[in-house]
Structures are given as structure tokens and as C-alpha cells.
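Hi D.,

Good news: the full-assembly prediction came through. Inputs first.
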Amino acid sequence: MATRVLIPNGAIGLGFDEAALWRGVAMRPDIICVDGGSTDSGPHYLGTGTSKYSRASTRAEWRVLMQARAHAGVPLVVGSAGTCGTDATVDWMHDITRELARELGQDLKVARLYSEQDGASLARALDAGRVTPLWPELPISAGVLGECTHIVALAGAEAIQAALETGADIVIAGRATDTASIAALPLMRGEDAGAAWHGAKIGECGALCTSNPTSGVIVIDFDDTGFTVRPMAEGARATPDLVAAHMLYENADPDILHEPGGHLDVRGAIYEQADETGVRVTGSRWVGSGDYTVKLEGARAAGHQACSLVLLRERRYVEQARAWCDRLATHLESEIRARMGLEPDAYAMELRRIGQDATLGPLERAASAPCEVGVLAIFTASDQATALGLAKLANPFLLHDPLSDDEPQATFAFPFSPVEWDRGPLHDFCLNHVLHVTDPMKQFRLEVTNV
Amino acid sequence: MSEPRIGDVARKVRSKNAGPFVLTIDVFCADAGRFRAVCDALRTERIAALFGQAPELVRRFELDRLNVLKFSMPRPVVQGSRADRDMHASGWGWLVAELPLREGR
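Then the structure:
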């Protein structure tokens, strides 16, 4: 038996080619799967339990996918809902679903899979030796676990299968591995496990493995010896090299992909052009492990920030921007001590020169001679009021500080009034660990409702 | 004529996060000849020095089937931490692309 999976794009909110989606629906898929999240946009989303993509974008795309689901009469799954896959973003997605079901006149069974973890019980698991580090190793303690504002475990294919087995029309999953929702049904129906995981990895970014990455939509056929991937956009094609190269993407090891319960090994994979647009892949291998682990992600608060931006346009200042920043930093340090009573270890101040080395910092090797330099001043303190206070204190110095004492007053360009803005709380990713479990569903909770 | 750089020889150099703690850099070459030249030029120690990493922390993959040289290493700063400047790790690849093909130039 073959299993056909329709994948609209790499993440809901990114957009997709709607004509291509309906072409995919016409191919009678067995399931529609879309990813909803990633750590790739930083720790803020997990730290706060919010979505990166706007509600309007998410709702607009989900509306089309719900219509496609109704038309195809098959389950629709979103994994890692709302970027970070916390309980709050699963419920956010559920709210959107309920609203749209009413609007579209659909009666639906919706399964929610929750992935959020409790720090205290993880601390007990840590004590019992059931939490182990991944590479590169980060320090961990009950204290670190307690500081996390949110911790999620990445659900594997078994947890998605449990949600599908409820007979749900729609599955809204919290944090899951990028591949779990795509691999779940092919594995359930006994397709080749190596093919299921390899195809899921190739498909998790939608059409990124094809000649038209932004079109989004692909269809993957899984069977008992391999898989075939095809883009749905007009004129788009997959080629063996594009598909093989996708194993490199956002993956530390190009041959091995670790998943709960084992790993995928693609060293023996053979990629062939199946027809005009599709690529056939065989020979990938799934290596099961007796030890079932789920990866943990956690974020904790790391202070509060406020920023300012000043633009240097005068040639002399542009040429000596680094010296100007160094002099300004020394100046500010003593003013902060004198006026706020704060020693340098009580806050952090950074002046990043946009146009010179703001992207790479001390690793930058290129000499640049721009016509202007933006100086982004970033202040971090333990609370928001202090961070903003630091930025406000810096204001007159950013505006007027000269390169030397014996020269006429300089004035630089502020783009806004006020020039300072609150950036709010800063968060840190602080877990790079797995939890060893006996039951793949143990860390996850299912809730089924009719909407 | 100025010295050729890695980016002149390679078809594309791409850097990206592989999770919040790992940086991965892919150097795509158009053919086996250019791939060999890039592999010879980018010794693991040279890459480690470029990013201020210990060489034993830099993992190297030579994928001759695809003519791609790949490096993975701990991210120079953890993604999104206070010192991070590039949330998606998009900029580090340019350091590799702008290296002269011949060392010491």
C-alpha cells in the first residue's frame, strides 16, 4: 500500500502557491501535514509562549488548508503549533480553528497534543539519570530547569499516531520533531521506515528541495521500498541533487538524523529522476534503538533590554567610528556609575556599528568604507526600567559626544523621538538535552473536542 | 588580477543554524575539480582559526557525490543570547566565502 502526503509549505505563515495546493488535493492525498514551528527565530517565542507569525497570516493559510482538508476528506495535521509548540500556542491554534470551523460551516473532531513539560518533574528525572546532554554540552541543574519559563519535549511519530488514532479530522500538535507529523501515517501503514523518515526530512521544508522553493507545495508518495517527491507548482521540478542536498540543510550531520527511538542513516540512499518533475529515493535505512528519548527545549529570562540608534554621516566620524564608540563607552561607563550608582557588572552595554561589523563583530575581516555608520546601542539590565534608564542617560552623549575634547560640538542623526525604545525581556535557550522515557506518549497529553 | 577567493571558486557558500547551539556551513561546488581545490584550501584547522574554535570541535564532511564540503561546530555564540548578532547564522558563511583560496594571502 502506498501513502500519499500533501505538504503545503515549510511552515504555516510562510505562504504557498494556492493553485499548486489544489493540484495536490486533486491527487487524492491520504493526509495533509504542515509544520508550525522551529527554534530558528530565536528563544523569544518559547520564552514567552507566543507565535512568530501573525494571527492574520496563520488564519488566512489555515482557512485554505481547512477547505482543502474538507475537500480531500482526510486528516490535517499541524506540528509545533504557533512556532514554539507550547500549550498556549496549541490553544491559540485551536481558537483559530474553532473560529474558522464556524465560518466555513464545518463540524470537526479536533485532537490537541500537548508537549509542555513541568520543570520540577524533569528535575526528578535529572536526579534519576534520565536526562542526558547532547552535543555541544550545556550545564544543567534543577536550578536551570526551575528558571525556564517554558520547557517543551519534541513529540515523535508515535505521539502523532496516537492523535490520528482518535479519528480526528484535525490534529493540532505542540512541539514535535520537524519530521514526526509527515512520517507518522506512512509508518502506521507499514511503509518502509527508512523511506518514511528520509522523505519526512526532505519534505519538512516544503518545496525547498525543488527548483521553486517559494511555491511551497509538494506531494510525497511513500511505499515499502522508498519514496517519490514531487513539487506541485507549475514548472517546478525536483532533481536528485536538490533532494540529496536537502539533507544538509539545518542539519549538523548530513548522513544521520536522530529521532525519538532511533536514527535515520542515508549513506546508502540512491536518488533518481523518476519522471519530468519527481525524484525517487531508495536505500535509506532506519536504525531503531532500544532507548526511546525525547529532546527537550527550554528558555529562561535573561534580563531586559532597551536600545537606541544614532547615525554618523560626517566623514571624519565615519572613518573613526570604532574610536568614537570606544571613547563613548568609557564616557558612558563613568556617567552611569556617577549618576545611577551602577557598576559595569550590573548591566551590559554594547555599541554595534551597522555598516562596519554589526553582523560578525570581532570576527569581521573586511575593511569597509561606507558613507555612513549606524550605531546601535543596546542596554541590558535586570529590569526594564533600569534598561530604559540607561538608554535615556546615554541619549545626550550619543547625540553630541566629540572625537576629542578640543573640537566644536558635533551633532549626529537620531531617526526617532524618543530615540530609545524598550525591547522587553530577553530570553536564552538553556537546554540541549534528551529525556529517556519508557513510553513514547508518557510526556504528551491528548485532548479531543468537537468544534 | 586579484587573488581568487573561496566564493569565486565555489558555486555557493551557505551558513545556517542546526538548532540553537550548532553552526553548519555548506560549500557547494560545481564540479569535482573545484570541489578538490576547495577541500584542499579549507583545512579544518584553518576553519577552526577563522571562528576561534578548537579544531577538534569542528566536524568536517566531504560529500563527493554532491561536491559539497560541510563543516559543523558549536555556534560561536548561542542563538539569541545577548551576544548574538545574527539569529539565523546567515552571516558566518561570508567569512568562508571571502577567504583567499591560497592560505597566507
